[in-house]
Amino acid sequence: MKIADGLGLSVSDTVIIVLAYVFCHGLTAWVVNPVQAYYLGDITMFASLVYLPHGVRVLSIWLCGWRALLPLMIAALLSEFLFTDAHVLELTSYALWLSIPVGALSAYLAFEALRIFGSSVYAGHSRRMDWRQLMLVGVLASIFNSIGQTIVFAGVISPGDQLSVVVTYALGDMIGQAVTMLALMMVFRTLRRMAQSG
Amino acid sequence: MDRLRAIFELRDMLRQMERDIGLEDLSPAEKDVFQAAHTLTQAPGQLIESDQIRQHRLAKNLAQATFHRALKTLLDLGFLERPDGTRAKHYLVRRDLLHDS
Q: Cβ–Cβ contacts within 10 Å for residue A152, how many?
């Protein structure tokens, strides 16, 4: 079943992207952030050192292209309402409407930047996709995202903290993507072994 | 891009990642078949037939089904390739693996 022309992604694909993103965001909010807050303090309010949904962003755009943008934005909005503390949400609510598209667009821009420079790495465009290329796109996307988010939250973050927030955003996205891909790899490996033994 | 193709591409990429970080483990039969194909390749890009691999001393004692399963796994993993436009049962050892073993 396809959504109207122009959106071009099936409902089930949209649901998969949204669920994967929300699940990863929940893990980040409930597992990663408390540990990080214990060691690093207030910076957690803006950025995670292991931001798992970045992997979902990169993989979704890789597989679906621009069609993944809307599901990613819906997922990000849903995640914010589900997992962000009410007082943080209130403090950042005016920026949220910019922050969400910036997050989704960062991955798309990274893929488009490579395509414009003659090295399209979208799924199906090269005969064999190298995971290192995907990590590279993720790094580029994390740089775009960290710059964008710092601009969006410029009024909330104190000037003294801005550099650490930029670095945390970029590192968090990169590490998050690596962890997500490793986790997916282990899932596929386990499924394969179960199929072989069964 | 259809969903099945997307899953295959994702699976292949993650399988490659698994191999690159040293987690890939080939069965003894798969190692023998790959070693046989590798030994039969005199020059990069040379096509080899499945019968040639089958007759190699490393592979000739394998059961038929085991041999074909090993070939399929090696193809799935990207150790062997079947270039577009070539006849069935013709394989190529991936160029960058030719000096690995």
A: 21
Test A131 with B9 for CB contact under 8 angstroms. Answer: no
Residue B98 has pLDDT above 70, yes or no: no
- Say which residues have a Cβ less than 8 Å from residue A81's Cβ, sequence separation at least 6: A89
Backbone angles phi, psi at A29, to 5 degrees: -70, -40
Please give the residue of chain B at the shortest CA–CA distance from A178. B17
Q: What average pLDDT score do residues A91-104 get?
A: 83
- Among candidates A10, A64, A131 on the partner chain, residue whose Cβ is nearest the Cβ of B13: A131
Highest mean pLDDT (candidates A29-43, A113-127, A128-142) = A128-142
Predicted local confidence at residue A5, as pLDDT: 40
- Under an 8 A CB cutoff, do A185 and B78 touch? no
DSSP type of residue B96: G
Nearest CA in chain A to B17: A131
Contact status, residue A54 vs residue A62, Cβ threshold 8 Å: no
Nearest chain A Cα to B77, which residue?
Answer: A128
Q: Which residue do the tokens 């934005």 mark?
A: A73
Owner of token pair 């069609």: A67
Tell me if A180 sits within 8 A of A54, measured CB to CB.
yes
Per CATH, is B26-97 categorized as 1.10.287.370?
no
Mapped onto helix, strand or coil, the DSSP state of residue A10 is: strand
What is the rounded CA–CA span in Å between residue B12 and residue B28? 21
pLDDT digits (tens, 9 = 90+) for B28-64: 888 889 889 988 988 878 889 999 999 999 999 999 9
Residues of B in contact with A128 (CB under 8 A): 12, 16, 78
Burial degree of B82 (CB within 10 A; 0-12, 13-18, 19+): middle
Residues of B with CB under 8 A from a CB of A: 1, 3, 5-6, 9-18, 20, 23, 78
Give yes or no for a contact between A51 and A173, defined as CB atoms under 8 angstroms apart.
yes
